[in-house]
User: What shape does this take?
Amino acid sequence: MSNVLQQQHQGMRTVADIMASLQAMFGETSTRARFEAVKAIMNSRMKVGTPMRDHLLRIIAHFNEAEIHGSSIDQQTQDDMILETLPDSFIPFKTNYVLNKMDLKLTVLVTELQTFEGVIKSKGGKANMVVASSSSSKKKKKISDKRKASLKV
Assistant: This one.
């Protein structure tokens, strides 16, 4: 501490009093840092080709920085924020996560995402998805034409 700060805090009895005084003096820096950490998470997007591990380590570092500066983000919100940073190739994973109402610890989520990343890489960048399609109007027209013909007879 500088001499000025030492003299200001010399009469204080506990470290908690000193910390409260310092927080009052320099609290805005912490607020700004917390804002920047949360903003960094919200603006992060995983680039295609970036290893999942590296991306998640960067996101977790932002969570830790936000927590150090007083932010409290619950586990489910952290999971949701992480899922929002993933590219479109992870849509099947995100869909499965939401539909099955998964609630994973961060370490398990990281493992599951890395496993899914391995599956995507082994399949050439695509994951299997079931896509529902409606019948075409031409098929409907043919069926209705056949019904009309059978009614005329």
Confidence is low (pLDDT under 50) at residues 130-140. The chain is about 70% helix and 0% strand.
